[in-house]
Amino acid sequence: MEQILGPSVPSGRALWRPLGVQDVIITGGPLARWQRINHEASIPLGLEQMERSGALPNLRRAAGEGEGPFQGYRFQDSDLYKQLEAVAWEHARAPEPRYAEFIEQAAAVLERAQRPDGYLNSHYQVVKPGKIYTELEYSHEMYCAGHLFQAAVAAARAGIGDGLLAVARRFADHLVEVFLTGGDDGIDGHAEVETALVELYRLTGERAYLELAGKLIDNRGKGLIADTGLGKLYAQDHLPVREAATPVGHAVRQLYLEAGVVDVYLETGDESLLDCSLRRWEDMVATKTYITGGHGSRHDGESFGERYELPPDRAYNESCAAIASIHWNWRLLLATGHGRHADLIERTLYNAFAASTSADGLRFFYVNPLQRRDDLAEDAYLGRRREWFACACCPPNIMRLVASLGGYVATTTGAGLHLHQYVPGTVGAGGARLRIETGYPWDDLVRIVVEEAPDGEWKLALRVPAWSAATLVDGRPVRPAEDGYFSIRRRWTRGETVELRLDLTPRLTYPHRRIDAVRGCAAIERGPLVYCFEQADQPGGVAVDDLALNPAAPLRVVPRDDLEGVGRTVLIETDAAAVVQPRDGLPYTTTPQATGTPVTATAIPYFQWDNRDGGAMRVWVHLA
Amino acid sequence: MEQILGPSVPSGRALWRPLGVQDVIITGGPLARWQRINHEASIPLGLEQMERSGALPNLRRAAGEGEGPFQGYRFQDSDLYKQLEAVAWEHARAPEPRYAEFIEQAAAVLERAQRPDGYLNSHYQVVKPGKIYTELEYSHEMYCAGHLFQAAVAAARAGIGDGLLAVARRFADHLVEVFLTGGDDGIDGHAEVETALVELYRLTGERAYLELAGKLIDNRGKGLIADTGLGKLYAQDHLPVREAATPVGHAVRQLYLEAGVVDVYLETGDESLLDCSLRRWEDMVATKTYITGGHGSRHDGESFGERYELPPDRAYNESCAAIASIHWNWRLLLATGHGRHADLIERTLYNAFAASTSADGLRFFYVNPLQRRDDLAEDAYLGRRREWFACACCPPNIMRLVASLGGYVATTTGAGLHLHQYVPGTVGAGGARLRIETGYPWDDLVRIVVEEAPDGEWKLALRVPAWSAATLVDGRPVRPAEDGYFSIRRRWTRGETVELRLDLTPRLTYPHRRIDAVRGCAAIERGPLVYCFEQADQPGGVAVDDLALNPAAPLRVVPRDDLEGVGRTVLIETDAAAVVQPRDGLPYTTTPQATGTPVTATAIPYFQWDNRDGGAMRVWVHLA
User: Fold this and answer.
1) Which of A613, B19, B216, B353 is the most buried (most CB within 10 A)?
2) Which residue of B has its CA nearest to A622?
3) Which residues on chain B are in Cβ contact (under 8 Å) with A376?
């Protein structure tokens, strides 16, 4: 099977071929900034944490080398595996000897820790050797294995870490022996290994890995694991995968599971898998997706809520859920060729995902709400980003996605290229090389310069985002085809250009009326960016919580080259009102609300919030 | 100390003297109905469950008599204690030999289970004898003890259960030896024993019980117990009691704690305790109280949320929190003489509390939301009332309050009587006896007939609820004094009457604009009753979730003698709109909502919901 150096899904059934991390060079804009701080700040922090958080010491314990008690959660190994994957992609993008060294050294520890039969999990080996594979509902053993496989695939594609791949294969073979040929039935309470097994199959050609992934998906909903007390929905074990109509339970589990479901479809052609996954996708997008692209409405169980249950303040929107959604949508994009999946990737990437990391790359959100009140109890958890977490699933997950972002920008067909995300830089594919010049998403113009012209007729397909009300190509209004792309098929000459102009007019967006939690409100968007109102940007004394927007007022664009703490941004100002309602006894009255006084309200892109004072924030603001 | 047969707070510092359960006979209206079904259905079910749920079998195990494993939670004993208290009050109200027998038999089991040193807890004696008092953060040992003390006090006041009191005193003495004179410092993670110790002091005169209650309150906020992982706010251990400004954490814990704080003030006169409790009360009422009187905005930690975080769908509003709030407000009423506490008791009683039980008394809510969607996932927990719970704190708690409701109706002073709640029946106090004739809360007239006239000048004080916009006494408009009562002081003659007419005009109520979750909505109230819209009452095909109210439309009162499944009620009809917004892709658009078609919408009192089909329900409905 052809190998592509990227977080890719090369498959006969995919409509398009992904590009490798080395085929797309991102040279500017927010994505290049994220990759720079990932390289300079986040990854070094993550590498340090692999010792401090216990991830590597635990594995040394399992190898019989370390001292002291097991540290952290039973899935602590997975932090290391995600970190290894991040380092592997980063090595492919911007090689450094320390990356290869880290992978090599970690692989050596893993090799020594791994049991002769291939099993590897420091928690179970150190703490509960008698319980291996007996607590699948919460053991995370296959979940950890999955992250190991993904790290090994990334390292192998990047040409480093043969040792890691050997460890991964031995563990995968052990899983096959127990759960496929051995006849044990089970699933992991936390889906993840399914997509990883398919990727390992793509790398190695070992069909048993694909078969095991398929079996694990078929096993879900049969009650093979115990209920952890959080209910069968929590682990998507309430119904067979092909029968479940809507995403439920722990959001990250559901979304990783979906990536696996589409992956198995892509390799086996089982249409029933694609069908059920698309059915849930449509329900999720229409009723359970935040405007930021985030998923997970409840802290309770870190889970999806009911349809239209989308509270802004108690939104969970785990950073890992944003990543898992991008993985799933990428696979759906390759499977269906429909730009709506690239649209959702863009929305998620620039909002739910990007907000997870501070401007300096050193602090992270686990939970990404759409509102923070100005009136927090004196003693409440303030909900600011943190350097690390006891359960640190998010930071290394963020790092592996940022390092591999180039893989999500474009795809090729035999004679053509689809541009899914607009970033300045170069994209090379099959004899063609394009240079892309753009200040997007701050500016509306995307200029595509043909640096190397392909032979013969060749199609350039440009995604036209659903939000772009008026789109120009080379100065002429265009409408995308039903798949969301505008295509130009012709012979190309070196040096010629295509100019795409997207509609970045700021827009006031209203929620569906059944989203109770934000009725009577609007949000501001511009291009792919969702905006929010932060206390730091409001004129003296006006509380964000007192703002009321005027739907008729113009939205004024205010570019800022270097806003303190934030960097480059585009603010939006509008004429609004400040409505102060007194606090007196029960907050229920028989007279409607007070009127307000005029103020100017200023909004900042949501992904740049919480880089200043930690004050109030709102995406959805009352309408006057 | 004088003993009153009621859930009382007799204290030198209380402004008023409570009445006993036998002094107030409730003969009609919803409260009499609740007492009847409590007697006929709920208590018999509860008595059965004492065997089935493991509560009594666990204690037999502790006595060395039973077989089989410990059943249920570590606080399983408390279910029995609350059930015993319910039975004791019910015996005082409507004696039956089986009640005295049950108490006697249970007391005998407890006596045999109790250790010679007085300690008693079946979980720790059976499962973890080595861990006694070492896991106070979650052990519930003192919490269980508190419920034992309250049961013993109730039984003693009802003249039964000497054996129970002896058991309780031995355990209380053991607590005193360990935590007061013995010098051990600690608190129970779940407050409750504080108010119970004060009641036991009131019954026995043993000052050490009061002192221990005071010490446990002083100990809170000092970090004497471990964090269970839910944070220090969860158990109100984040700050000393006198410093905490707002209710936080697990709602039932906070509210039981407050009852203890006011109880200790009432007996010691420590004003700093009353002050801090009132400060939190005011903050809670203004920012953390549901319109139903419910408390607890989060499933996560069963806890209070931030100020104005009051989601209707994910409201927790545990039934036990409503009970605890009534306990606290009763003590504040006696301490301050301000009718606002009786107002909140009424709101809580008729809404948050009353909704907890089905019309037949056989099913209970643990969680009392203000909204249930019509569009629940096929596999979601439907949230209907249940016969019992693994954690069954609520049902017996409900039973003990219903049995003792008479104790919350009126209080006396030397020469006078305050009527706090309006119920048909008789109230006797100090040579006076009043007969009250009323169809309240369905009807607006309360007729008070003097059956026995008191000697000399005597004051009759009538609570004028804050919601009653136009109140008449004997046909003349009156306004209450600042304390919320309208008083008549004069000489009284047998047979004379006073007629109070409250304003039961239905009203449209708006939320404070900072309650994000219900902005742009209104609720309907009539008298003390909050209304809701249930699917069962709406004309064919119109979904509750599509309703939009017209604030200018009249609210029509529709009395129903016997609505199927519900019984007597008063419905409210209004002209509204049905607004159907299509589902198509992301639920965010740049065009505002659709308009609707005219429909008649019908509301039912919230406390009577979920007695029909289990469909959608809303207290707060969009405004057109």
Assistant:
1) B353
2) B519
3) 306-307
pLDDT at A564 over 90: yes
- pLDDT tops 70 at residue B305: yes
Q: What is the CA radius of gyration of chain B?
A: 24
**pLDDT tens digits, residue range B510-556?**
999 999 999 999 999 999 999 999 999 997 879 999 999 999 999 99
Cα distances (angstroms) measured from residue A20 to each of A100, A146, A406, A414, A427: 19, 21, 7, 16, 10
ipTM of this complex: 0.92
Instruction: Test A511 with B377 for CB contact under 8 angstroms.
Output: no
Residue B617 phi, psi dihedral angles, 5° rounding: -150, 145
Half-sphere exposure of A240 (CA within 13 A, CB side): 8
In this complex, do A593 and B507 lie within 8 Å of one another by their Cβ atoms?
no
Compute, in degrees rounded to 10, the torsion defined by CA atoms B445, B447, B448, B450. Answer: 170
Return the percentage of chain B with pLDDT > 90, whole number: 87
Determine the average pLDDT of the residues in A3-12: 74
The structure tokens 């640190």 sit at: A392
**Residue written as token pair 């089986």:** B98
Of A239, A299, A592, nearest to B300 by CB-CB distance is: A299
Cβ A585–B286 below 8 Å, yes or no? yes
The shortest C-alpha distance from A58 to chain B (Å) reads 22
On chain B, the residues whose CB falls within 8 A of the CB of A509 are 588-590
Q: Searching chain A, which residue's CA lies closest to the CA of residue B583?
A: A286
Q: Hunting for tokens 């200790």 — which residue is that?
A: B264
Domain architecture of chain B: domains with CATH: 17-408 (1.50.10.10), 425-501 (2.60.40), 508-622 (no CATH)
Question: What was the pLDDT predicted at A491?
Answer: 96
**Cβ(B318)–Cβ(B250) below 8 Å:** no
Q: Are the Cβ atoms of A588 and B523 closer than 8 angstroms? A: yes
Rounded Cα gap, residues A322 and A345, in angstroms? 9
